[in-house]
Amino acid sequence: MMTTKLHPVVEAVTARIEERSKESRAAYLEMIRSRRPGSFARSRLTEGNLAHQSAGCAVMEKTQILGAGWPVIGVITSYNDMLSAHAPFEHFPQMIREAAREVHAVAQIAGGVPAMCDGVTQGQEGMELSLFSRDVIAMASAVGLSHDTFDAALHLGVCDKIVPGLVIAALRFGWLPSVFVPAGPMPSGLSNPEKVRVRQLFAEGKVGREALLKAEAESYHSQGTCTFYGTANSNQMLMEVMGLHLPGAAFPNPGTPLRAALTRAATHRAAAITAQGKMYLPAGELIDARAIVNGIVGLMATGGSTNHALHIPAMAAAAGLSVTLQDFSDLSGATPLLARIYPNGAADVNHFHAAGGMSLLISQLLSAGLLHGDAQGVAGPISAYAQEPVVLDDKLIWRPGPLVSGDLEVLRPIDAPFEADGGLRLITGPLGDGVSKVSAVKASHRFVEAPAIVFESQDALKAAFEAGQLNRDFVAVVRFQGAAANGMPELHGLTPVLGVLQDRGHKVALVTDGRMSGASGKIPSAIHLSPEAAHGGPIARVKDGDVIRLDTEAGRLDVLVDPAEFGARTPATFRPNRAPAGLGREMFDLFRMNVGAAATGASPFNFLGIRS
User: Fold this and answer.
1) Residue 405 CB contacts under 8 Å (≥ 6 apart), including other chains
2) Phi-psi bin for 432: left (phi > 0), alpha (psi -120 to 50), beta?
3) HEC-encoded secondary structure of 499-548
4) Phi, psi for 63 (deg, rounded to 5)
5) How far is residue 435 CA from its own chain's centroid?
6) What distance in Å separates the CA atoms of residue 425 and residue 430, rounded to the nearest whole number?
7) Element (H, E) at 112
C-alpha cells in the first residue's frame, strides 16, 4: 500500500538512534556479516560432527543432512504444559517437521528454554527470578544455536520475558534468518471489569477466597495467552510490527485451522530466506533502527506494557543499537492512542483482533507516516503487513485488511483517536529517571502532591493497608525493588490495594525503582526509577513525610525538600527483605551484581560497552 511522508518525529528519533549507535551498529554488522555461510552451515563441520547431528533423525532427514542439499531449520521452543500460553507448542514440532519436508528442508529442535509465568509467581518469592529469566532464555537459546549447524531458526515463544530473551539470542545469531512463531490468546472468559471488581472486593475483605478463585479461574480458563493487554500480548504486537512474524500471526486462537496454517507457513518462509536461496533475510539486518522505532510506535498506539521500556532497549542493544527513554517519550508524544484494551479499557485482545486487529492498526499508522513502511519484515516490507490471513478451501491466503474498525470502542482510526498521544511518559526529576503509563489513568488522577510513606517491600504496604493505616492522601515510595536489589519483581499486587484507596477519594500514587506489569492499571506511578536504591539512587534518601509531587502529564517527579538537605542525607542501606537463599534465588547473585540500569534495559549483558 502507499504510505505518506514519514512523520518528522519518527524521522528524527530514527536518525538520532542511528547516529548515537553508529560505531556499535557497524561493529555488530561486521560481526554477523563475517559469519554468513558460503554454503550450508553444516558444511563447516567434521564428519564426526555431522554424524552426531544426524544420529537421532528419521531416515529422510539423516540422508539430507549427511549428503544432500536441504537447509536445516533450528527450532528453539519454550514449550511446557503447566503454562497455558506455552502448552499449545506441544504439537508444533511435528507440524513443523512435516511442513519443512514439504519445501525440502529439515527441522530440528535445537533446544528448549524456560518459560515462567508472572501470573503464577505474582507476589511470590519466585517472581524475583522473572526479569532475569529473560537473560537466561537468551543464553539457553544461544546454547541451542551454538551447534552452528542451522541455516535458519524458528523461535516458539509468547509470554513476558520469553520473547525478549528469544529476540536477544536471535540478534546475537543475527546472520541466521529468524521467524517467530506464536501460539495465540485463549478465547475470552470472564470480562475484565468484572475480574477487577472481584479483586478489589477481596482486597477490602468483602468477598472470600472462594469468590476470588472462581473469578480468576473464569478469566484464565484454557490454553493460550491471558487475554488482557499485558506484556505477553504486547510482545505479539511487537513481533508483528517489527517484522519477525508473518502478517496477522499475532492473535488467532490456538487449536484453530488458521493457527496451524500460519505455523506451517512460518516454516516454509524460514526455509525460503536462508543464505542458500535468493531472498536471504538475516535477522540482524532486518532488525535495524527503523524496526525498533516501529516497535515503539506500535507500543504507544496500543497502550502496551511498560515492561517494554526495559525490553526494547535490551533487545536493541543486542543488535548494536542504543535506545533511550527520551526516544520512547518523544515517540509517545507523536503517536495517537488507537486501541483500548484492558487495562486501558474493558475489551480484551480477542475483541481487538475482531475489530480489525493488527492489519487495521498497521494501515492506520502507515497512513500517518508513523511507521517505516520500507523496513523489512520476514514476509516483505512492513507496508505489506496491512493484510490479514484467512484459510479458504484449506489454503492459507492473505487479503487486504479492513479499512474501518468493527468496534470504535476498541480500535479507532488515526484521525479520531482515544488520546492524542500514546500515554507513556518519561519521568525526570531529583529522584532520577523513570517511566509512567498514563493511558489507563483518568486525567483527574494524573497529578498528585502528598506526603511520602516509604516501604521496602510490597508486603509491607499491603500490611499497612490491612491495618487501616493508609486511609489518607499519600505517595507510596516502594524502594529496593530494582534488579540489583532483588531481581525487580513486578509489584502488580499493589494495584488492587491502591485502587481501593483511590476509589475512596484519596489521592494516591506509586513511586518505585521496581516495575509493574502491562496490567498496571489506573494508579498514577513513576516506575523503573534509575539509578535504583541499591545503587545509591536518590530514592534511597526519601523519608516518611517528605512531600512528593508527581505530575505525569508534565513528566516530573519532585521531592519538595531543600536540595542541600536532601543531598546531605545518608542513603538508606539495602537490607534484603528475605533470606537470599531459596527457590534458586541464590544462583542469580551474578546477575544482580552485574545488572545495568533500568533505563538501559536492566540487562547483565553489555553489548554496547557502556554502563549507566
Assistant:
1) 355, 356, 360, 411, 412, 413
2) left
3) HHHHHCCCCEEEEECCECCCCCCCCCEEEEEECCHHHCCHHHHCCCCCEE
4) -60, -45
5) 15
6) 16
7) strand 106-112
What are the backbone angles phi and psi of residue 246, rounded to the nearest 5°?
-70, 150
Express each pLDDT in 446-459 by its tens digit. 999 999 999 999 99
The answer to whether the CB of 457 falls within 8 A of the CB of 468 is no
Strand spans (E) along 131-217: 152-156, 178-181
- The answer to whether residue 376 scores a pLDDT higher than 90 is yes
* In the block, residue with C-alpha cell 513443523: 96
Instruction: Specify the pairing of strand 395-400 against strand 474-478.
Output: unpaired
d(CA 467, CA 478): 18
Neighbours of 481 (CB within 10 A): 29
Cβ contacts of 603 within 8 Å, gap of 6 or more: 135, 313, 314, 317, 595, 596
Size of the chain in residues: 612
pLDDT, position 580: 62
- Would you state the pLDDT for residue 517? 67
| Intervals of CATH 3.50.30.80 along the chain | 424-599
Residues 474, 477: Cα–Cα separation, whole Å: 9
Q: Which of 29, 17, 23 is nearest to 313 (CA)?
A: 17
**CATH for 424-599, options being 3.40.50.450, 3.50.30.80, 3.40.980.10, 1.25.40.10:** 3.50.30.80
The residue with greater pLDDT, 372 or 192, is 372
Question: How many other C-beta atoms are found inside a 10 Å radius of the C-beta of residue 447?
Answer: 16
* Cell of residue 451, nine digits: 506526603
The distance of Cα 557 from the centroid of its chain, to the nearest Å, equals: 25
- Mean pLDDT (the chain) is 94
> What's the average model confidence in pLDDT over 484-507?
92
Give yes or no for a contact between 23 and 385, defined as CB atoms under 8 angstroms apart.
no
Name the phi and psi angles at 448, rounded to 5.
-135, 130
- Chain centre distance of CA 67: 41
Please count the other Cβ atoms lying within 10 Å of the Cβ belonging to residue 111: 18
**Which string of b and e fits 47-65 if b means at least 16 CB within 10 Å?**
eeebeebbeebeeebbebb
- Separation CA 195–CA 172 (nearest Å): 40
Kindly state the average pLDDT of the residues 65-88. Answer: 94
CA angle (121 as vertex; 117, 122 as ends), nearest 5: 105
Nearest partner of 455 among 544, 545, 522, judged by Cα: 544
| Angstrom distances, CA of residue 585 to CA of 100, 104, 532, 533, 580 | 40, 45, 20, 20, 6
Phi, psi of 74 (to 5 degrees): -90, 130
**pLDDT of 573-588, one tens digit each?**
877 654 467 889 999 9
Nearest to 179 by CA among 264, 241, 104, 245: 245
DSSP element (H, E) containing 433: strand 433-437
420 vs 6: CA distance, rounded Å:
18
Report the Cα–Cα distance between both ends of the chain, in Å, rounded: 42
